[in-house]
Amino acid sequence: MPDNAFSALRTSILRTVQRRCPRWHHQRQEDMAHAILLKLLERFDREAILAMEPRFLATVVRNAIVDEWKRKQPEAMDTHDLDELDAHPPTSDRTLRDVIQRALATLSDEQRRAVTLWLLGHSIRETAHLLGWTERQADNHRWRGRKALRARLEAYGVTP
CA-CA distance, 83 to 112, in Å (whole number)? Predict the structure, then answer.
């Protein structure tokens, strides 16, 4: 890949990251642009990267930002609501139900719906049909939702 084409691609990715990245995450913008460029170079040959549509690159950037945010989200979560709960696991069914409901409320709407249907015993195919998603979307939302729910329950002192 010629140096000027590589430089232009990196500049384009950085500009897209700067436009889409939340302001509170501005200190990581260059790192994210670099990581995105490296991932593209690992997965595609150089000519294919240069031929990519700007919309595809924008989607790659958006997904990378969302993944980074979700990875960092448990660290950024407020812990003031943890003070309301005991540091020990809940003992009654009522308290456990309240903790689970509180943890579910912290999930995104898509994740909450996918996890709720999973808790009710629905398969990926049924979840996709009920919510009008593809099976891949249903699986992705359910997997990420379960991961986030598990982290939140552990923060509340409940071992799933």
Answer: 24
Task: Please report which helix (H) or strand (E) contains residue 13, including its range.
Answer: helix 3-20
CB burial class (10 A; 0-12, 13-18, 19+) of residue 64?
Answer: buried
The amino acid that residue 48 corresponds to is: A
On the CB side of 15, CA atoms within 13 Å amount to 8
CB of 145 within 8 A of CB of 115?
A: yes
Q: Which residues contact 76 (CB under 8 A, 6 or more apart)?
A: none
Asked if residues 148 and 94 have their Cβ atoms less than 8 Å apart, the reply is no
Per-residue pLDDT of the chain (160 residues; tens, 9 = 90+): 456 777 888 888 888 888 777 666 677 788 888 888 888 888 877 777 777 777 787 788 877 777 776 666 554 444 443 333 334 444 455 577 778 888 888 889 899 999 988 888 888 998 898 889 999 999 999 999 999 988 888 887 777 6
Model pTM above 0.90: no
